[in-house]
Amino acid sequence: TLQALIFDVDGTLADTERDGHRVAFNAAFREFGLDWNWDVSLYGELLAITGGKERMRYYVEKFNTSYQQPADFNDLVVALHKAKTRHYTELLQQGGIPMRTGTTRLIQEARDAGLRLAIATTTTPENVTALLKYSLADDANDWFEVIAAGDIVPAKKPAADIYIWALQQMGLSAQDCFAFEDSENGIKSSLGAGIKTLVTVNDYTLTHDFTGATAVVSDMGEPDASPQIMCGSLHG
Ligand code: XBP
Ligand code: MG
Fold it and tell me: Which residues form the signal peptide (predicted)?
């Protein structure tokens, strides 16, 4: 029987990528005097790699090959990422990113039904804490018994490790849980851990391959507006 819901964060709980993470990366690049600028379309390609530090290294290797890497490039990436996290969490503190349609209601209904809640994400723990606090509710961090995030497992999504870690922390098996994702890397990770998954798409993930999803929908819906069902069924 269903005991717990496990949520991805970026793109699933909130549309954080285009107007959040991307903007914060660019602010960090400016702060460090770099002329790198990730526009909306380039960022869509960079999302192929999860994890901010990993994404910056991928950018330099694949899209900015003329950049001369300094000897301490890895330290620079770590410093850039710290600045990026600061810019991103400041944006959230200002109320910059709302929850996606239906997600607040769904989480509240799950709590009322006595379901256990967890997070499984590749993003940095501070980013999750800030989103839950400023965009969901002041005490929302206490609603989630496990927040599996960031470098807690070395192999990020699409590897299943982060979901497996969350299951272990909760002492549950995959059949006891249901996952919510928005991307191909995300659903590869959740299905890899054996967890049934509902996908809510967004602009960056519309064309992804969601083979194996229980259903693919436009959003979580609200009482006055049902989600558009793209594949699968919300019943049965
Ligand atoms: C989220 C990510 C993250 C964020 C950036 O993917 O890919 O890398 O874009 O976060 P998912 P950090 O929704 O599949 O978890 O910069 O903190 O790594
Ligand atoms: Mg996501």
Answer: none
